[in-house]
Amino acid sequence: MSAIRTNWTIEEVEQLYALPFNDLLYEAHSLHRQHFSHNSVQVSTLLSIKTGACPEDCSYCSQSSRNDTGLERERLLPLQEVIDAATMAKNQGATRFCMGAAWRNPTDKSLDHVIRMVSAVKDLGMETCVTLGMLTQAQAVRLKEAGLDYYNHNLDTSPEFYGEVITTRSYQDRLDTLANVRDANINVCSGGILGMGETTRDRARLLQQLANLPVQPESVPINELVQVEGTPLAGADKLPSIDFVRTIAVARILMPKSYVRLSAGRTEMSDEMQALCFFAGANSLFYGDKLLTTDNPEHSKDDQLFAALGIKPETAKVIKSDDTTQVLNA
Ligand code: SAM
Ligand code: DTB
Ligand code: SF4
């Protein structure tokens, strides 16, 4: 089995992206079958634990205070509401519960509250993930001690296009946070958004950055921009679905052992497009009718899709190596 490469050149990534579609999907799917169970997807549920009034200026986001999106702001949720939502998610079949906060970064005091949430969700027997903005090394260590499994922090796009989308924090800030998370021994969840007006090269550069991190992220969310009225990116040209599937396939080839998450934007995707994404190597998604502030397909719709495709939600983390299949957290 080939080793994981973290030295991809932009030319190599662009060449993969430009392959004839059938060749690209064949290569991606072959790698997918080597490393993962073929017909299962990992299922996470999201909850916004602190909504709106964010000081950052991310031009895609409903929650930035710079964007007049009519979103009602909410304070940090009480612990019991989080436990209730996680319990419901678990009963509906999610194995990971992801909590997101509209912060530039958490204060140490707000982190105390989040840590209680993480411990309570762990006690339910679920994996935990949080996305709270920038994190210091000391904060990452505190989250690890609380038992946090994953930290989500996206690079969002290429270093070159990034300044067109966000100006209040730099690309390097994001890389620093990812390094703090990795050093604290927390699994890294990092990906980006497609359909913001970026070029093919930008998409290739985003994947190159993720694949060439010293250790590749365990989880790579690929979001399609959810266009929110009142944000600068509302009205952006929609990305052709074939380009979206190509990006998933290239992510699978560059990061063969990472979970690739078909993330935001699924309400706008046909069943056929999602099926192609699964074939191309997507093996994780958000389950539940809401993402953070925007809609996601209803449970029943996803259940129908899974049944039609013969896909089973993963009940435990499965890692395939040369000749053994290890089941973790069974
Ligand atoms: N505030 C924290 C941060 O930005 O790091 C955590 C929450 S933020 C909403 C998490 C990620 O969601 C963003 O980095 C972005 O990639 C994604 N996201 C936000 N709004 C989106 C949208 N309208 N469409 C697609 N993805 C979006
Ligand atoms: C990620 O990459 N996508 C999720 C999760 N990480 C936190 C968030 C998607 C947000 C979509 C817009 C919203 O619902 O506000
Ligand atoms: Fe704030 Fe995160 Fe939205 Fe950016 S993506 S405005 S940091 S909530």
What key attributes describe this structure?
binds S-adenosylmethionine, 12 strands, ten-stranded parallel sheet, binds 6-(5-methyl-2-OXO-imidazolidin-4-yl)-hexanoic acid, binds iron/sulfur cluster, disordered C terminus, 330 residues, alpha/beta, two-stranded antiparallel ribbon, 11 helices
Written overview of the protein:
Helices cover 39% and strands 17% of the residues. With 330 residues, it is an alpha/beta fold. The strands form two sheets. Strands 1, 2, 3, 4, 5, 6, 7, 8, 9 and 10 form a ten-stranded parallel sheet that branches. The protein has helices at residues 10-17, 21-35, 79-91, 108-123, 137-145, 159-165, 171-183, 200-211, 241-254, 271-280, 299-309; strands at 40-50, 96-101, 127-131, 150-152, 187-189, 192-194, 219-224, 259-262, 282-286, 312-313, 317-320, 325-328. α5 links the parallel β3 (127-131) and β4. Bound molecules: S-adenosylmethionine (SAM), 6-(5-methyl-2-OXO-imidazolidin-4-yl)-hexanoic acid and iron/sulfur cluster (SF4). Iron/sulfur cluster is lined by residues 54, 56, 58, 61, 63-64, 102, 133.
